[in-house]
Amino acid sequence: MKKLSMLLLCLVAFAARAQQNLLMVRTQLEAPEAMAVLKETVQEYGYTVAHVQRCDGGMSQFHYKTDYYRVLFFGKLAEARGILKHYPQMAPFIPLKIAVIAEKNETVLAAVDPRSLGRLYGHDPVLRVQFARWYNDLKSILEELRTFKPKS
Amino acid sequence: MKTWLIFPWLILAAVAQAAPDGKALYEKHCSACHQTQGHGGIGLPLTAEILSQISDDYIAKTIRNGRPGRIMPSFQTLSDAQVGAILKYIRSWSDQPPPKFPPLTKKGDAKRGRDLYAKYCQRCHGEDGSGEGSGTGVTLSREREFMVMPAALNNPGFQRSASDAMIADIIRRGRKVGGMPAFRHKLSEQQIADVVAWVRHLKPPAPIRGNSEWAGKAAYVMESPYSFEETVENLKQALTGANFRIFPARYLDQGLTDEFSVNKRQIGIRFCNFKELYHLLNIDPRLGTVLPCRINVMERNGKVILVAPNVMEIFRLFNNRELLEVAKVMEDVILGVMEEATL
User: Fold this and answer.
1) Rounded CA gap, B18 and B15, in Å?
2) Is the domain of B232 the same as that of B142?
3) B265 and B192 in one domain?
């Protein structure tokens, strides 16, 4: 049963495959609000927020003109540890991340499509399932942000 | 009774399949880059002025073919009906009908066209037709007043999408939005046909390849002969020597568990050169999806290894040739740092 559900997960994830290696959505929320909603949403999907990288802060400090530009890192402890134990070369991709990029008063959210990493890992069957799972979660999380309507 | 109840649903499902929702499809597949109403962002703007100059056929083929190496992905899994629905939705922003380009009446000569291209077009479109100007979209790279860069005429996506008639029309009438002058008073119909013939000869640039030892691998992995602590120290020194600013290191599972439970033998040394970062974000604002620069030091089975993302392979995901040119330089720097730390 477990194998069947994994097969289905992969089938769904790979059937929907487009020619894009990045997952991107636009939300009509302003960037700080988008980040707040994103944090809540990843937690609803069972992930823990690890930290937020403030790229805009660093660039501003060095006098580079930039708008809100931050990256949210998140993951699941057991999953992260399991992958790092068996696949140390996956370290650059742990934890997962979503970039939050302001565009005037809207926000673009972007993440690497985990399925696009499959080729670089020799289509390892265990990672293939993991990538499909992450894809489904990231896609759903981003879709929630895209369709999010603020309570007025 | 049950069969009777199913019928309306079947009909509704069939109708839904027959008439895809262009607005919904645009918002799902296009708006992230082109903005909700086509004002442009990471992707080029689709304003009424621009739409009045490009045919439906060109837009549909651009959706299908994308622009290899120029960010715009290809959407080959969309059905004809879905592409048509997106097109219809985009057209609804403008009250002008799609343009129809008169066919070329003369047969062009590429040899003559090459000289004309060198004289009139090369300054903006480049000798090989790769276009001019860095970056993409109007988010970070350019001000909104200058919305469209000189097109990459040698791009296979452009070559497959633009008809000869459309290219000729662009030469004749110019494109105000991108600053391209009209040539109808400078060039005869024969000369325009010659330039079109030469444009068809332009070939895409050679692919950019990285270090062959690491090609096709997700990460650079090197073993260190030093202890974990010594390796971390060596790495920091090598990074400082390569003009990087180093941030507080983070354990790889830090933030996912409490501070007492983190694995302290797996650490990410984070570094940045803000000048380079700013430059890279100007080329492609989506780069945050793979930031920050980090080399990981991990202890495994009594051995210490360094693991860093393979920038050539990772940057390849962005379909942005300009980014790959930078990645090639970065690859040498990162491999140099890792080698220095493990020598």
Assistant:
1) 5
2) no
3) no
CB pairs under 8 A between A and B: 165
Give the residue, B83 or B1, on which the prediction is more confident: B83
Residue A105 forms contact with B (CB below 8 Å)? no
pLDDT by residue (tens digit) across B223-255? 999 999 999 999 999 999 999 999 999 999 999
Residue B254 CA to residue B266 CA, distance in Å, equals 10
A75 neighbourhood in chain B, CB within 8 Å: 253, 256
Q: How many domains does chain B have?
A: 2
**A76: distance to nearest CA of chain B, Å?**
7
- Kindly report the number of other CB atoms within 10 A of residue B315's CB atom: 28
Q: Is B126 left (phi over 0), alpha (psi -120 to 50) or beta?
A: left
Which residues are within 8 A (CB) of B148 and not within 5 positions of it... i.e. 6 or more apart?
A: B44, B45, B50, B175, B177, B178
Domain ranges of chain A: 22-146
Q: What is the mean pLDDT of chain B?
A: 88
Chain A positions touching B266 (Cβ under 8 A) are 84, 91
- pLDDT digit string (tens) for B36-83? 888 887 788 888 888 888 999 999 999 999 988 888 899 988 999 999
CA distance B104 to B168: 7
Residue B143: pLDDT above 60? Answer: no
Domain that holds residue B245: 212-342
CA distance A5 to chain B (A): 25
Q: Which architecture characterizes domain A22-146 according to CATH?
A: 2-Layer Sandwich (3.30)
Domain containing residue B149: CATH number: 1.10.760.10
Helix and strand numbers, DSSP H then E, in chain A: 5, 5
Tell me the CATH number at B256.
3.30.310.70
User: What's the whole-number mean pLDDT along residues B132-141?
Assistant: 49
pLDDT at A19: 54
Are B211 and B331 within 8 A, CB to CB? yes
The tens place of each residue's pLDDT in chain A, 152 residues long, gives 555 555 555 444 444 444 578 999 999 999 999 999 999 999 999 999 999 988 888 777 777 777 888 999 999 999 999 999 999 999 999 999 999 998 888 899 999 999 999 989 988 999 999 999 999 999 999 999 999 987 76
Pair (B54, B154) in one structural domain? yes
Q: Answer whether residue B318 is part of any domain.
A: yes
Query: Do B174 and B232 sit in the same domain of this protein?
Result: no
Longest dimension (CA), chain B: 80
Let me know if residue B3 belongs to a domain. no
- Domain shared by B68 and B108, yes or no: yes
Q: Do A112 and B294 touch (CB under 8 A)?
A: no
For B171-181, the pLDDT digits (tens) are: 999 987 777 89
Cβ distance of B281 and A66 shorter than 8 Å = yes
